């Protein structure tokens, strides 16, 4: 009987150890699941915030483009007014109207050509020339290394 009670005691002790380990595992699992749910909720909040900000950025971009177009139209009308004043001043000083209009057209063409030349000079910057120059030695060195082998 003593042997039986010792065996029962060991079995009860092992069962209680297993149940505490299972309970501990369950607690760990619950903590991990809670952490995962919190991280998921945080990620969802961040995605919703990014979506809202992207929508706001898109609306702001559209508003800026519309404002830019309106400003461009207003500036064109100002330019036309200045050209008209110049033509009227030339006519008022005794220049024939046709010559005054041709002078205004010539001035507009000269300004347009200067702007075109400036744009052509700046267009090379759009190709990232410094970055390309920094990458060319690597690209040029690779075939040279392969031919030496």
What this model shows, in words?
The protein is 93% helix and 0% strand. It contains three helices and no strands. Helix 1 (2-92) packs antiparallel against helix 2. The protein is elongated and about 100 Å long.
> Roughly how many Å apart are the termini?
86 Å
Rg of Cα set: 40 Å
Q: Enumerate the spans where pLDDT stays under 50 for 5 or more consecutive residues.
A: 17-21
DSSP helix count? 3
How many runs of DSSP E, i.e. beta strands? 0
Helicity, as a percent range? over 70%
How does the overall form come out from the CA principal axes? elongated
* Class from secondary-structure proportions: mainly alpha
Strand residue percentage: under 5%
* Quaternary structure annotation: single chain
Describe the biggest sheet?
none
The residue-averaged pLDDT reads: 84
Order of helices and strands: HHH
Task: Give a nutshell description of this structure.
This protein has 149 residues and is mainly alpha-helical. Helix content is 93%, strand content 0%. The chain starts with a helix and ends with a helix.
